[in-house]
């Protein structure tokens, strides 16, 4: 199956700073990647669909200006949390694939 | 829009007991169905999936699930649970076809007592 990596695996930042999370497909070209967020003891919630070479599609309630997504190549999608606040502290997971999903290992963000 | 509901939020069982976790989805079209498990501190692992064919699907670690189209259900079962099955279980659905988003249920936390 496809191997998906995320970087960083965890990050701690001060409130107001921006954090970039990378999702890489190591052996699979993905025109579409998905970004999820999982708060403690909750389920995964889809944030947005990242489309290679075009704008991302955001789920209702997700601020596109706060969560910037760039899918510049078939193997890389980035999620930038701009002006992060403590309520953005969460576990961010990317997913790629078609009928078989491949999840990244996740990035744990803690905003102080 | 798709939605997935899991009826049990927290289930506590003794070892060797039988398990059934409920999952219902709402969507009018053809769907793919999944069960994922998340062990404490780890990321999601696929237990099993249904795309088409035999509605009784067997997965890893002795789990199985049955797709009942008329009930929009995809319940997860295991005849005899073990302490190591303690984890959170997520039912999920996607439209059939490639590159579809996956919608997750709220999860069921299973605690198995030795």
Task: Describe the protein's architecture and organization.
- The complex is a heterodimer of chains A (112) and B (114).
- Chain A is mainly β and 112 residues long.
- Chain A has strands at 4-7, 10-13, 19-25, 32-38, 44-51, 57-58, 67-73, 76-81, 90-96, 102-103, 107-111.
- Helices cover 0% and strands 53% of the residues of chain A.
- The model of chain A has no long low-confidence stretch (mean pLDDT 91).
- Chain B is mainly β and 114 residues long.
- Chain B is built from no helices and 12 strands.
- Chain B is globular, with a radius of gyration of 14 Å.
- The chains are: A mainly beta (112), B mainly beta (114).
- At the A-B interface, strand 4 and strand 5 of A face strand 11 of B.
* Topology of chain B as a string of helices (H) and strands (E): EEEEEEEEEEEE
If helices are DSSP runs of H or I spanning 4 or more residues, what is the number of helices of chain A?
0
Largest interface, with counts of residues having CB < 8 Å to the other chain, equals:
A-B, 21 and 21 residues
What's the assembly state of these chains? heterodimer
Distance between the termini of chain A: 37 Å
Taken in chain order, the helices and strands of chain A follow as: EEEEEEEEEEE
Summed over residues and divided by their number, the pLDDT of chain B gives a mean of 92
Number of strand elements of chain B: 12
What's the overall average pLDDT of chain A, rounded? 91
Overall, the morphology of chain A is: globular
Q: Tally the helices of chain B: what do you get? A: 0
- Principal-axis shape of chain B equals globular
Residue share in β-strands of chain B: over 45%
Largest sheet of chain B: 6 strands, mixed
Relative strand content of chain A = over 45%
């Amino acid at each position: 199956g496809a191997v998906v990596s995320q970087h960083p695996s965890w990050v701690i930042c001060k409130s107001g700073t921006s954090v970039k999370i990378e999702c890489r497909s190591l052996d699979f070209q993905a025109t579409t990647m998905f970004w999820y967020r999982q708060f403690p003891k909750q389920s995964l919630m889809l944030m947005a669909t990242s489309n290679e070479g075009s704008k991302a599609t955001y789920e209702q309630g997700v601020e596109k200006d706060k969560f910037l997504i760039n899918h510049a190549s078939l193997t890389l999608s980035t999620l930038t949390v701009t002006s992060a606040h403590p309520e953005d502290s969460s576990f961010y997971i990317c997913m790629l694939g078609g009928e078989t999903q491949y999840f990244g290992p996740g990035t744990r963000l803690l905003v102080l | 829009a798709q939605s997935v509901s899991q009826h049990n939020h927290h289930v506590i069982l003794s070892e060797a007991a039988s398990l059934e976790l409920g999952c219902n989805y709402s969507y009018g079209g053809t769907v793919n169905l999944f069960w994922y498990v998340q062990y404490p501190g780890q990321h999601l692992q696929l237990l099993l999936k249904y795309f088409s064919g035999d509605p009784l699907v067997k997965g890893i670690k002795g789990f199985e699930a049955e797709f009942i189209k008329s009930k929009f259900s995809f319940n997860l079962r295991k005849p005899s649970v073990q302490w190591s099955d303690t984890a959170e279980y997520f039912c999920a659905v996607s439209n059939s076809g490639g590159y579809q988003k996956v919608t997750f249920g709220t999860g069921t936390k299973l605690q198995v007592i030795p």
